[in-house]
Specification:
By secondary structure, the protein is mainly beta. Helices cover 10% and strands 38% of the residues. The protein folds into two domains: 55 residues, Roll (SH3 type barrels); 199 residues, Fumarylacetoacetate hydrolase, domain 2, CATH 3.90.850.10.
């Protein structure tokens, strides 16, 4: 199932996305839901809208936190891991950094080297802590596409990573949340990032130092995870600088494609 958060007739709604390629029963459309499926029981209302007639928003607005994981990808599948046995490097991003599909990413005047990072994002579906590996599927609501935009010049200062990654607009998400993928399926998804149509990142989740289950279980030992929390699992090699006027696209197979234009901050 694909869960979208969208705007239509000046109202923000949730719905299930049905693509013509899946069954041919409907054209690309969204079937309206009665509430927020991440945090409450919902049901279909009977209303339906063409996908082209709604504005897709960030599929989830974290009420608590966005958790990022740095340096989580090996250069190739099966490569030796120089950090084997060490805990993952974790940082927090504010929820004010979250934007949706097609929303512009504003390059801040404070940064001279802002970069893109295409990532798989995990959406937490229930309050949890101290989650053993075998129970991780019970706490995951689904998966979406993320772009962990970073003011890379700020990584060189003695500052928390959350500063470099926490500017407004620095966490594009979308186009929707996919809820039907198993952990096994998620462990081998291709990620491609394009800048103005040119591919700059091409990797697979097989390159993750720690798989999704291991990451979620570890994080739950450190902090309580709440419904709607996001785990950004890291980015494959190839992250690069962006400039105003460019178009970023992150595509993850079985999930979807996220596009965002880059603009300059107004004086």
């Amino acid at each position: 199932m694909r869960i979208a958060r969208y705007s239509v007739a000046d109202q923000i709604r949730y719905g299930t996305v049905e693509l013509a390629q899946d069954s041919g029963q409907f054209p690309d459309s969204v079937a309206d839901l009665s509430g927020d499926p991440v945090v409450e029981p919902v049901k279909l209302t009977g209303a339906r809208h063409a996908l082209s007639e709604v504005r897709l928003l960030a599929p989830v607005l974290p009420r608590s936190k966005v958790i990022g994981v740095a340096r989580s990808y090996l250069p190739t599948v099966g490569a030796d891991d120089p950090a084997a046995g060490q805990p993952p490097q974790v940082f927090l991003k504010p929820n004010t950094s979250v934007i949706g599909p097609d929303d512009p990413v504003v390059v801040p005047r404070l940064s001279r080297d802002t970069g893109l990072e295409g990532e798989l994002a995990v959406v937490i579906g229930r309050i949890c802590r101290q989650v053993p590996l075998e129970r991780v599927p019970e706490v995951i609501f689904g998966y979406t596409v993320a772009n962990d935009v970073t003011a890379r010049d700020y990584l060189g200062f003695d500052l928390p990573w959350g500063i470099a990654k926490g500017f407004d607009d620095f966490t594009p998400l979308g186009p929707w949340i996919v809820t039907h993928l198993s952990l096994e399926e998620v462990s081998n998804l291709t990620i491609r990032t394009r800048l103005d149509g040119r591919e700059v990142q091409h990797g697979t989740t097989k390159q993750l130092r720690l798989g999704v289950a291991e990451l979620v279980s570890y994080l739950s030992q450190v902090m309580t995870l709440l419904p709607g929390d996001l785990v950004l699992t890291g980015t494959p090699p190839g992250a690069c600088q962006i400039q105003p006027g460019q178009l970023m696209e992150v595509e993850i197979e079985e999930i979807g494609r996220l596009s965002n234009p880059v603009i300059a901050q107004e004086a």
